[in-house]
Structure formats: structure tokens, C-alpha cells
Amino acid sequence: VNRQLEIVERFQRMEHVRLPNDIDYSLISGLSREVCEKLSRVKPRSLGQASRIAGITPAAIALLSFYIKKKSA
User: H helices of the chain, where?
Assistant: First the structure.
């Protein structure tokens, strides 16, 4: 039960991490061309939305999260 609560909290936090409208996904090292194309086409507003796009891996979300945190620092 505690583990499920942690997962729910993690997803809720990802919903609050906003993605810039003008982000160039091709600049994020490690993202595949396919992932970049999907993100550019869908234009998710948050990490949570990006995580629900078919074909977007947890590794891609981690890279995207790291990139966003680095840019905002």
C-alpha cells in the first residue's frame, strides 16, 4: 500500500512540472529521434502528460526531467 501511495505521489508531482512551450527536444542528449518527434508533435504541457504518450519511456521522462531542472537552475 505504501509503495502504491509513493507511485501516486510521484505522478502527481510530475503533473506540476511544466514544460516550456518553445522547448527543442532535439537538444536533449539521449532522447531518440522517435521520442523527440512524438514530443514535438503532441506538445505536452507537463511531465505527467509526456509520460502518458505512447512510446515515451521512463528513461526519456527521466532525461526530460533532468533537462528541465538543469534549465531552471
Answer: 2-16, 33-42, 47-51, 58-72
